[in-house]
Design goal:
There is one protein chain. It is built from 4 helices and 4 strands. By secondary structure, the chain is an alpha+beta fold. The longest helix has 14 residues. Strands 1-2-3-4 form a 4-stranded antiparallel β-sheet. The relative contact order is 0.13. 21% of the residues lie in helices and 29% in strands. The radius of gyration is 21 Å and the shape is elongated.
């Protein structure tokens, strides 16, 4: 018996396991958690099965499998859920998935949209939240003195 990778604190068999086996998700959050678990387990069938029909047209199974295998999954944080309750046909889940790839810790921050389709929730699309790139040091102009302290212009020193 293992804990579910989605971070719910429950056992896999009592959490995402039935969804990966084909059971319908009760809520958008449950589907989101199962999709994360599918990436951890490299269950590309579940990833594809849980897509809305229009989202399947540009789904790349091979790329999803390759990405799933190339990273070390480190955790899922659900930031917010909106909609998806009884009688509702749409919902959103904002989440951050943490992973390590190429020796670097990274995050994927997304707000995903879900809808009911054939009595089950499906993933429609998502808006990825990009972190702005912030320069750690001031920009050095080509004709400014080189920050290395050589006394030369940047373009004739470290800027080559």
């Amino acid at each position: 018996m293992t804990k579910c990778p989605c971070g719910s604190g429950r056992l896999l068999e009592d959490c995402c396991g039935p969804l990966l086996a084909g059971a319908p998700a009760a809520t958008p959050q449950a589907l989101m958690r199962s999709r994360y678990t599918a990436y951890v387990a490299c269950d590309v069938d579940h990833l594809e099965r849980s897509l809305a029909p229009e989202a399947r047209t540009d789904h790349d199974r091979k790329a999803a499998e390759q990405w799933s295998r190339s990273v070390e999954w480190q955790g899922l944080d659900i930031l917010s859920c909106d909609g998806g309750g009884p009688g509702e046909d749409t919902g959103q889940v904002e989440f951050v998935a943490r992973f390590r790839q190429g020796g670097f810790d990274q995050t994927h921050h997304e707000t995903s949209r879900f809808r009911r389709h054939d009595d089950s929730w499906v993933y429609v699309d998502g808006k990825v939240h990009m972190k702005p790139v912030v320069r750690a040091t001031p920009k050095v102009g080509r004709n400014d003195p080189c920050p290395c302290g050589s006394g030369k212009k940047y373009k004739a020193c470290c800027g080559r």
